[in-house]
Amino acid sequence: MVKLIEIMLKENLITKDAISTLVKSRPPKKISFANLLSEGMIDTHTVEVFLAKKIRQGVITLAHLEKIEGINIVSILEEVAKALHIDYVDLDEVEVDMKLFSQIPYKQLLKYNVIPIEENDLNVVIVFDDPLDMAAQDTIQRLFPRKPIRIAIAKPSQINAHLQRLEINESIKGLVTDIRKDLNQESNADNHDEDNPAVLKLIDIVLKSAIFAGASDIHIEATEKSCIIRIRVDGILRQSFTFDKDIFNPLASRMKLLSNLDIAEKRKPQDGRFSATVAKKDFDFRVSTLPTIFGESIVLRILDKSKAMIRLEDAGMSKFCYDKFSEAIKVPYGIVLVTGPTGSGKTTTLYGAINAIKDVKDKIITVEDPVEYQMSGLQQVNVRESVGLGFADALKSILRQDPDKIMIGEIRNQETLRIAIQAALTGHLVLSTLHTNDAISSISRILDMGIEEYLVSGALVAIQAQRLVRKICTHCKKETVLDPLLYKEVEQYLPENPTFYKGEGCKECGHTGYAGREMISEVLTVSETLARMIAKVASKEDLTKQALEEGFVTMFEDGVQKALDGKSTIEEIFRVARL
Known about the structure:
The chain has 579 residues and is an alpha/beta fold. α11 packs antiparallel against α12. Helix content is 40%, strand content 23%. The chain has four domains: 2-84, no CATH class; 87-166, GMP Synthetase, Chain A, domain 3 (2-Layer Sandwich), CATH 3.30.300.160; 189-230 and 248-304, Beta-Lactamase; 312-470 and 517-550, P-loop containing nucleotide triphosphate hydrolases (Rossmann fold), CATH 3.40.50. The chain has a seven-stranded mixed sheet, with helices on both faces. A six-stranded antiparallel sheet has the order 7-6-5-10-9-8.
């Protein structure tokens, strides 16, 4: 970095005055491209052209480029590709041909940091980490004597991520060969009832790798050229395995057999479940299949039976939100709502709330679809639509059970909402969830569902909206400089001279820079003034204005504070919440 800035000084692209301005600022600012750009001492185009030139001259490599903060690496790679008359490829947007990949020994791929991605009638497209490495190009060309190779470049981090995933494939190559042998034996013997041990071993590896990575879902997908397995970790999908297309059918059939589904039915969706013991722990897997143009998409939701329930105080709520929410759930009657999209931790928050307020003196009943955590001291009802036991039906019966507190897993329709509000108005504390983007929008949603304003204003106690943001990995956490455009967007929420952090990426976090998730939230407590405004059908703007006057803190502000505390990044806050 310092060497590059010295070269820019020699080439008169920046002045010594600009450097001294950074050093003399209070507190002194780091001499970096990000600070030079944010202070307007140099323009983005000049930096991109300069760095692209230095890559072509061999002064720096593409790997060095990724370590420079505050620059758009894609623009520079495109500039380099244009100058060298080669292609730039976004590896996340292309599908690697596994048959082509298997033609190059894995050790060679690793040695030269290359990935073959496509073969056509004219040439073979190979992505290189270093487009100037002629020795690597000659070696790879010898592996394809009949066709010339076409050089392409990509982000080095993408190349490394692909090679790591393909390394796992390399380690189970023998298993894939065994599956093919078993398939050939089955077709020759015309016997499809015997067990296929290789497929079972492969499924075991897929389940184990997902569970050890802390995944919540496994996605098995058929594509045009291959079979891809992805896992969702901390709310983000990442690719874990890539196989040849012929592996998909035996894998899908075995998954269906385990889940008691019809293996011959590939034209319509199916749902099932199975249990398995992985690493001496019991897990349930909810399985869903969906027909697609290249086969099927199979998704497994992982449910850990032994998973400990998270306490409300450990969910990551800020002290301000925790205090307001805790106060709201201690009222004797009324309705408290937790809102957010699917997978935002609403059910976990409800369980934490129930755990915080449960008492031997109270009769607490929950109605859920399905019951995710089994808790002592309360009665839990599982919704079964197939036998006519929906949320509304269960709720009607629950009210005849003399309850003090009721938890409803999800309010899906007007009937359930109306019964819940009537229960809240007749002396019961009702906790439930709703699908809305923020706390104040929930009021409009309830009114849109056909509930009278006077009922809503009388029953509503508080609404918490929440999201889950990824936490910065503590093993590779370091200070960083925020992108100038991002800084301008959040400037109004920042103190003077703020410090931001990011994760560089390490083995502990799977090179993502993030490990684990934490909640950001906003809690709207319905004051007498707000209740009167709801009864008069005030607009969302007026309700927001009044809430802010009463000290309401938005979810985005809560997220920015998390970033300032070094728990997450501003980019992550923007990903899950918005201004």
